[in-house]
Design a protein that fits this description.
Elements lengths: L1 E6 L4 E8 L1 H18 L12 H32 L8 E6 L6 E8 L14 E7 L2 H14 L2 E4 L9 E10 L2 E14 L19 E8 L13 E15 L5 H6 L7 H35 L6 H18 L4 H4 L10 H20 L6 H12 L5 H9 L2 H23 L2 E7 H5 L2
Helix pairs in contact: 1-2, 6-8, 9-10, 9-11
Length: 431
C-alpha cells in the first residue's frame, strides 16, 4: 500500500491511497474459496463448483466486498503513516476499481489543528470581586418576602405587579399559530415575560373578555413569527395582589433556616449571599481567563466539529423549553444562532487539552475521591451516592474533567497577568 496526503483549504486534507493488485487478488481468492466450500449449484456437488462458474455468479458482489474491505483496512493504516488526526468522517471517492490495476481511492476530511498555546504576559484577565452593600441585603430580603408571599384575589382593575389568571388565544391574519393559546395561565404584569405589548394590554382591565394586539420582537427565537403582529383574545378571569410573607418562624422554616430572631435571619441571608457571591466571582474570573486565551490564541477549527457542538447546544436549548428536534422545527432556535459560541467552545476545548499537557495536570484517584466525597455530602445517603457514581463511567468522566479544569484555572491564574475588577452586587443582579 502507498499513500500521500495533500493539504487543501484551511484544515481540509485529501488522502490518496493505492492498494497493490496482489492484495486484491489474495482477498478475492480467499472469498471464492470460502464460497466454494459451501456453494450448492445445480449440476455440481458441494465444494466442487469450478472457480470460473463461481466468479461468473458471485464475482460482482465479491468484488464490491473486497474493495470495501481494502478501503476499511488501509484507511487507518494510511492515516497513521501520514500522521494525521481526522476531525470528521471522510468523504471517499473510488478512483480505480479495475482489479488488473492497483485499487485506488481518495478520502477527504478535516483535521484537528496543531496548537501551541500562547500565554500572553501583556494581556490582562479580570480578577473579579463583588461588593455587597447593606442596601443589597435589604433588597435581597425584600425579594425573599415577595417570593414567599401569598397571592390573594381582589375586586378591582388590574395594575402593574398584580398576578392575573387568563385564558388566551392568538392569531395572525385570522389564522391560529403554534403555541398560540393557554388556559388558566398565571402572569405577573410588568414581569416582561411575554412579548412587548401583551402585558400592557391587560393592565387597567377588570375581569372580562377582550382583544389586544402585540408584535413579536425582530429577534424572536421562532423566525416565522419575528416582527409579526398578532391578535390575542383574552379572558381575564382573576386578579390577585401579593401579600408579602412576614419575617418570622414560618418563613424561617420555608427557607430551612435554624434561626430564632430577625437579626439571625438577616445574618443567615448575608452569609448565603456571600457564599453565592464567591461562586459568581470564581465564574466571572474564569470567563475572563477564557476570553483572554481566545484573544491571544488565533487558529482555525474543524467546521464539522463546530457544527456538532452547535447541534448539542440547540438540543439543550430545546430541552429547556420542553421541545425536541423532531417537534421543534428548524425555525425554533436556528442552528446559525449557536455557531459563534460553538466555535468558541471548540477552541477552548482544544486549548484546554494542550494546556493540561503543558502543565502536566492529572486527575488522580486521590483527587477524584476527595471530589466525590464533597459531592456525596449534598445527599442524605452519601454512601449510596458514592456507590452509584462508581458504577457510572460517564459521570466519572464528567467529574474528572471538572477536576482537570479547576486545576488548569489555578495554573492559568498564576501564569497570566491580572487586573482587579470590582462589580457592585446590584449591577450583577440587574443583568
Amino acid at each position: 500500500m502507498t499513500s500521500k496526503i495533500k493539504k487543501l483549504k484551511d484544515l481540509e486534507r485529501k488522502l490518496t491511497v493505492s492498494v497493490p493488485v496482489a492484495e486484491y487478488d489474495s482477498k478475492f481468492q480467499s472469498k471464492i474459496k470460502n464460497i466454494k466450500s459451501k456453494a450448492k449449484l445445480d449440476g455440481f456437488r458441494q465444494g466442487k463448483v469450478p472457480n470460473d462458474v463461481l466468479e461468473q455468479k458471485y464475482g460482482a458482489s465479491i468484488h464490491a466486498e473486497v474493495v470495501n474491505d481494502l478501503i476499511q483496512s488501509s484507511y487507518p493504516q494510511a492515516l497513521a503513516e501520514n500522521k494525521v488526526r481526522p476531525a470528521s468522517a471522510p468523504t471517499v471517492d473510488l478512483e480505480n476499481e479495475d482489479p488488473k490495476k492497483p485499487i485506488s481511492y481518495s478520502a477527504t476530511f478535516e483535521v484537528f489543528p496543531e496548537i501551541k498555546p500562547k500565554l500572553s504576559r501583556w494581556t490582562n484577565y479580570e480578577k473579579v470581586s463583588i461588593s455587597i452593600s447593606e442596601d443589597d441585603l435589604e433588597l435581597a430580603i425584600s425579594d425573599i418576602v415577595k417570593r414567599y408571599g401569598e397571592w390573594k384575589d381582589v375586586s378591582r382593575k388590574s395594575k402593574k405587579d398584580d398576578q392575573v389568571i387568563i385564558d388566551f388565544v392568538g392569531s395572525i391574519d385570522g389564522e391560529e399559530f403554534e403555541g398560540n393559546s393557554a388556559n388558566d395561565f398565571k402572569l405577573v404584569l410588568g414581569s416582561n415575560s411575554m412579548i412587548p405589548g401583551f402585558e400592557d394590554g391587560i393592565i387597567g382591565k377588570e375581569p372580562s373578555e377582550f382583544s389586544i394586539k402585540s408584535t413579536f420582537p425582530e429577534d424572536y427565537f421562532k423566525k416565522d413569527l419575528a416582527g409579526i403582529e398578532a391578535e390575542f383574545k383574552i379572558n381575564l378571569k382573576t386578579i390577585q395582589e401579593l401579600h408579602k410573607s412576614i419575617i418570622g418562624e414560618g418563613l424561617y422554616k420555608k427557607l430551612e433556616m435554624d434561626v430564632k430572631t430577625e437579626d439571625g435571619f438577616k445574618n443567615e441571608i448575608s452569609s448565603r449571599m456571600a457564599k453565592e457571591v464567591k461562586l459568581q466571582e470564581k465564574d466571572l474570573t474564569k470567563e475572563s481567563i477564557y476570553e483572554t486565551l481566545l484573544k491571544t490564541n488565533s487558529f482555525s477549527v474543524p467546521k464539522v466539529t463546530v457544527k456538532e457542538q452547535a447541534d448539542l447546544m440547540r438540543k439543550d436549548a430545546l430541552m429547556r423549553i420542553g421541545q425536541t428536534e423532531e417537534n421543534g422545527g428548524e425555525d425554533l432556535f436556528p442552528i446559525d444562532t449557536f455557531m459563534e459560541n460553538a466555535e468558541k467552545r471548540v477552541k477552548l476545548d482544544l486549548l484546554f487539552a494542550e494546556l493540561i499537557k503543558h502543565f502536566e495536570i492529572t486527575a488522580d484517584k486521590e483527587k477524584m475521591d476527595i471530589f466525590i466525597e464533597k459531592e456525596a455530602e449534598k445527599y442524605k445517603d452519601s454512601e449510596q451516592f458514592k456507590q452509584w457514581v462508581q458504577s457510572q463511567p460517564q459521570q466519572l468522566d464528567q467529574y474528572r474533567m471538572i477536576i482537570l479544569e479547576e486545576q488548569l484555572i489555578e495554573n492559568l491564574e498564576k501564569a497570566l497577568k491580572s487586573k482587579d475588577k470590582v462589580i457592585e452586587f446590584s449591577e450583577l443582579a440587574n443583568k
